[in-house]
Amino acid sequence: MAEFWGKVIELGLKGKQLTEFVESQTRLLAQREERQVQREREERQAQREREERQAQREERQAQREERKMELKRLELQIKMERKRLELQTEMMRVQNEHEAPRLRDNQQQMLHRASKLPASTDGKDQIDTPDFTGKVEAVCLKKPLYDLLIGNIGGARRPDDNDFEWRMGAAQPAVEEEDPLPFANEDISELLRDDRATVHRRDQPQVVSAVTTRAQAKKDKTTTPLRVTNSSATAVVDRDRLIQLQEADLTLTKYRSRPVKEMTKGEGTVHFEVKAKILYRVFQHPRVNGGKPLRQVLVPQPLRRQVMEVAHDSIMGGHLGVKKTSDRIQAAFYWPGLHADVTRFCRSCDICQKTIPRGRVPKVPLQKMPLIDRPFKRVAIDLIGEIKPPSEAGHRWVLTLVDYATRYPEAVPLKKIDTETVAEALVDIFSRIGVPEEILTDLGTQFVSECMEEVNRLLSIRHLTTTPYHPMCNGLVKKFNATLKSTLKKLCSEQPRQWHRYINALLFAYREVPQESTGFSPFELMYGRTVRGPMQILKELWTKDVDTPEVKNSYQYVFELREKLEETLEIARENLRKSQDSGKHYYDRKAVNRKFTPGNKVLILLPTDHNKLLMQWKGPYEVEAVVGINDYKVNVGKKSKIYHANLLKLYVERPPEAVQVAASVEEPAELDEFDGEELLELGDLHKKEGVDDVKLGPDLTEDQQKELHDFMGDFTHRFSDVPGSTSLVEHEVHLTSDVPVRSKPYPIPFQARESLKKDIDNMLKMGVIRESSSPYSSPVVVVKKKDGTNRVCIDFRKVNKITVFDPEPMPTATDLFRQLTGSKIFSKIDLSKGYWQIPVREEDIPKTAFATPDGTYECLRMPFGMVNSGATLKRGMRKMLKGMKNVVYYWDDLLVHTETFAEHLETLRELFSRLTKANLTVRPSKCILGTDNVDFIGHSLKEGQKGLLLENVTKILNAPRPETKKQVRSFLGLAGYYREFIPNFAAITAPLSDMTRKGCPNRILWGPAQEKAYQTVRDLMSRDPVLRLPDTAKEFILRTDASDEGIGAMLMQEHGGKPFPVSYASKKLSGAEKNYSTMEKECLAIVWGIKKFELYLQGVKFVLQTDHKPLTYLNSAKFVNNRIMRWVMYLQNFDMRVESIKGSDNVGADFLSRVCE
């Protein structure tokens, strides 16, 4: 506008010129707006066209997929038809094999008889058959067995020739004696054998190639056989057996003794008769069997189950319902109580019970939710998403909240749905509406995590959750979610990525209109008045009538508002009660009051293993307890979970088939010293190690050695290199996705395949793995072990990425060594393949499948490489050793430590008793008992001291000088494992660690500083440094110091009147820390040293020795340094005594200063 008037003043327009100019400018603006509108219209049209094209592409893609599925179905039908024809051909062949000898004997008998009978006519007759064409000498018999019987004559087709297009070239005379066929004296049953190889060679050309092509392999691939339910009807019952069973069945006696007379049954007639000693029921009905009599065999009791299995469970039974199964049986059989038996049989069918549609199981009556009469006393919370496409700002989810009393909704768009984000959004909502007393959510991880539980605890909120897979319990917010999504879809159809900007407007629209259940709008119940919305504004614009508010004082307004809110809520509560009654009335019309009792077997409607959106009946599981009106605690595997009754279905168990035993012989079992758990071990694998391979301490006396040998004799079966199978724990694999993980197998070197095959066979014999058809597949890697043999490793990285992490705490070396203080006798025990002694949970076994060149296998025992394998082993060890003293463990290594030998032997016996109970075995060759010097977790332990492991020190000393970043990191990693033995390790190795920074060349520029650091580490390691094990009964001494490059700390304890180091620690200063003043660096060294050894110093008195006096400054009356102020507040948590020492006495700090300078 300013530009417009500026132009008018510049041109000096007045009067008519000004009017024309204004009109022209107005037209220009109108044209611009019209062009803008046209462009927007064209953009929307183009957007719609793009969406239509996308929809067409998706539709064509769906059609292609549908055609592919149709082709697959046709291929499957063709394969099944081929299989049926092959089965039919096989049955005919077998039948021919059984009939051939009888036909041959009959043929010879008939020919013999025919030779003795006078011929009615003799001569040569012309015949034309698929087996022979031409003139033959024929004889006519008085009582022929067949219309035409062709003997062993020349020119006839061989019986084993399956060529149905066979034609004889010319008629040949029958000269039996002069031209006998080459198979005249052979057994005809051998000729009827189906020589598949011969037929294959006749029908197909012979293929000779160096490799098998894909088409050839596909052609030779055998069809997967169909799974057929095992049926007891396979036992053949002949006619004599049937007669015998009928005569012995007391339930059929009355029908056998009943006179043959017809009985009327509706429109039909029934009578019983005995024909050829077999009892029949003859039924005749105008609409059955065309009105002809239907003869039904009366089935005795032992055969009734077989008949029902064939009619219902067999592959051609189809698992049909009760009526169709009964009709199928009555077409040939009958027995008294047939319909009741078939009903029980079909209802107890395991397959039918697990595949019944969900809608066929009636729901339980609807229960009323408690009516909430106070706003925001209880709120329902849920999440919507993931929404595609995401909003322009990156929002993908919506957090929704609805109040039970007022139906007042809240919705907040979110970019993430982790616990922290959801908690912050809820607190933001609570800041507007107040903190509720109760919240109701589903079992989403965001709502049941420890962080959310802590938020609820701090805000004094009671958290209620729904049962699994039962969203009806949280139906209030689910209904609001559906309304919000439907309305949001309509509003943002033209701008789908702007959906987050429409939420507030939609919330206003939802809050403004009355709810059907309460009769009031959420705004009215919330604020006690009708808010000013679009309708009121439009009315005011049209009528110019604005209500003048009545002037009231604050007290009168609050009092009247409270009364109005109470009256409104009371009316809303009454309307809610009526709405509940109406909804329950209509819902319960098809409901059935189903109840379960503890001990009942039930099926649970759960998601499938491959798609969580598809539900199927799983089980059976046992009901443990009744939790609520319709909630039950069910034992699922080894866990107890609560499910709603609508997800449960009573499982009818089929009674076991009664087996008639003619005789039995009982023999006493000779188990010797083995118990039931030992019998579970496979006997194919013989152990190669025993108690003779166990090492004993070299300083033991003869009596002590004898006691240890007696102890090992009592637990001989525990010392074995064959892994046991424990029942302490099962390895569980919980995945975040149900989509099977498949990886391409890695190529295995040919020289390693033989050893791989032996390892696979060995694991199969031990029961560690089994053959698999799982959709999961992980590749196999062969790794060389220390002894030169190969180890089969499975690459589970893809499975680990989607595995829910097990937070089982892992033991640290520091914690373990602290417990060894004062111990003088040690025994080191290593489990025999500890991982393989833990079974995998049955439902998780397919997830461990791996592929090898010889096939796919899956793990029955816990494999190496899975992300939670260590946590499962740790949990099992913790359970076994719970409450036991003088035993520490690190993974599958156990260390028994005591002060006296008698206590040591007693501890060993208790440990091995627990190992026996847990059915765990130990590797004899890796066990050493009753020694005063033992290697444990990379350290050497002796007489309360901790030293370096010689093997690792040798590696460091013999390591070549590193030349690349990777080699430097490897060297620092190996040497850093013993950094607590080297004073100021960080400062010494600073020149080396600086070379591994980002931006430095990959090839190390080796200089004097790097050479000095490298040689210093090697020199310090070669001196065999020794540390004392920490003794918590003695006072700790902490020495600290700082230099321009780093800070160091040394934890010590007095032994024999002299301080002895327990551990060293050092840290290289950062760029900012190097700028600290000397006083601040000294203070930093003290604070950092205390933090480093806080596990030892927390809660005990200790001495702080320093050659500086920073604490004098810290304890002064006033100071302005905020950093030092924070350190002072931290140091208040410790009980320490400060001692000032000379710089020459502070050996560790002095060494640090000299090294860093």
Would you summarize the structure shown here?
GO terms for molecular function: endonuclease activity; nucleic acid binding; peptidase activity; RNA-directed DNA polymerase activity. The protein has 1157 residues and is an alpha+beta fold.
Strand content: 15-25%
CATH A-level architecture of the largest domain: Roll
Order of the strands making up the biggest sheet: 3-4-5-6-7
Structure class: alpha+beta
CATH top-level class of the largest domain: Alpha Beta
The biggest beta sheet is recorded as: 5 strands, mixed
Any idea how many domains?
5
Distance between the termini: 73 Å
Q: Kindly state the mean pLDDT as a whole number? A: 78
Poorly predicted runs = 117-122, 169-211, 658-686, 1148-1157
Count of β-strands: 36
- Considering the protein shown, what is the CATH homologous superfamily of the largest domain? HIV Type 1 Reverse Transcriptase, subunit A, domain 1
Shape: extended
- Radius of gyration, Cα only, in angstroms? 45 Å
State the helicity in percent bands: 25-40%
- Number of helical runs? 35
What name is given to the CATH topology of the largest domain? HIV Type 1 Reverse Transcriptase, Chain A, domain 1
Description:
By secondary structure, the chain is of the alpha+beta class. The chain has 5 domains: 233-355, Endonuclease III, domain 1 (Orthogonal Bundle), CATH 1.10.340; 378-587, Ribonuclease H-like superfamily/Ribonuclease H (Nucleotidyltransferase, domain 5, 2-Layer Sandwich); 609-650, no CATH class; 700-943, HIV Type 1 Reverse Transcriptase, Chain A, domain 1 (Roll); 948-1156, Nucleotidyltransferase, domain 5, CATH 3.30.420.10. The protein is 39% helix and 17% strand. The chain is built from 35 helices and 36 strands. The strands form 9 sheets. A 5-stranded mixed β-sheet has the order 3-4-5-6-7. The chain has a 5-stranded mixed β-sheet with strand order 10-9-8-11-12, sandwiched between helices. Helix 8 packs across helix 9, helix 9 crosses helix 10 (338-347) and helix 31 (1078-1092) packs parallel to helix 34 (1122-1131). The longest helix is centred in the N-terminal third of the chain and has 102 residues, at 15-116.
